[in-house]
Amino acid sequence: MTPNLKHLHPYPFEKLAQLKQDIVPPKDKSPIALSMGEPTHATPHLIQEALLTHLHGLANYPTTKGLPELRQTIAEWISRRFQIPANIINPETQVLPVNGTREALFSFAQCLIDSTKVSPVVIMPNPFYQIYEGAALLAGAEPYFLNTLEDSDYLPDFDAVPDDIWQRCQLIYICSPGNPTGSVIDQAGHEKLLNLAEKHDFVIASDECYTEIYDNESNPPPGLLQTAYNMGNTAFKRCVIFHSLSKRSNAPGLRSGFVAGDAELLKDYFQYRTYHGCAMPLPTQHASIQAWKDEHHVVENRRLYREKFAAFIDILDEVCTVTQPPASFYVWLKTPIADTEFAQRLFAQENITVLPGSFLSRDFDGINPGLNHVRIALVAPLDECVEAANRIKNFLNSL
């Protein structure tokens, strides 16, 4: 086995299961799970219908590159969503379908990192989606963490990275809107990072899987390719974006997303994926085409999340400081006691499961930015979110 396996940390939900292991919650209170970012809104009928209509496609091997119609649909969606003129995105060379962003975010590092170079570095935000760290470690690179703190609106401070780290950096993961904070990197932040990438010759992997869950309909989060184009980087050099239908279309079980950007990088990544054996099934491709073409269900999806945020915050605002992030469906709540104790006692008293922030972060530069926070995913139905808010309010009042 690869010796790098020993460097992997237990996954956050494995730690959470251990934290709850010996606790028996009250039987008179129904369980409410707000720990995992798994959407529970209904998957649109147009996705289900397309799957059923194209089940005959199971008799055929899919290609790694995917159907031309799917890649064309994705290219058109990128152009519409990020205000990039039509025909700038080449669906033949700059778009690849993937089986959800998780597998792509991981495998991209395996393809990209050159471990023969001295001490390769992969930079990532802290807290973070643990796939970034695992991808770096298994690719033989050193993770370098960028603490995202309240003072900087939970955004990474690229100026804080020493030059010697930038010089060894081969890949940086950014997540905007952020998990778990919901913070959004603006165009100026993207511009700074793009200039650094050009200076030090590293690749930017922009995880944008929450980009369609936002509060202000007139101010959607910007994307990395959007900023690159506005800067004149029309070939999107050193840029790859990762998008998914899991959150946007409430279809996590579909395992469908895409990567897009720098054609030279995607040429090599396509070859890697050909050997990796991760082609998207044809029924999934046809369902994805319909999902990327339709925006009505996405607008409704955002409305439902806004409704839940408003109700949840209205209840908790009396007992704690709680704010709605500009995007995502997470509340990044400060806790008056240790985050692990908070999660344990909340489960024991109220039968509500939330995720301790320290499970999503690492001690770095003398700080663990996840300490004394919990991540609350407002994925449950509205009535459950309201019930959860009332129970959390009662719990906070009991402390």
TrEMBL record:
Its cofactor is pyridoxal 5'-phosphate. Keywords: Aminotransferase, Transferase. It is an enzyme of class 2 (transferase). Pfam families: Aminotran_1_2. One of its GO terms (molecular function) is pyridoxal phosphate binding. Gene3D superfamilies: Aspartate Aminotransferase, domain 1, Type I PLP-dependent aspartate aminotransferase-like (Major domain). GO terms for biological process: lysine biosynthetic process via diaminopimelate. This is Succinyldiaminopimelate transaminase.
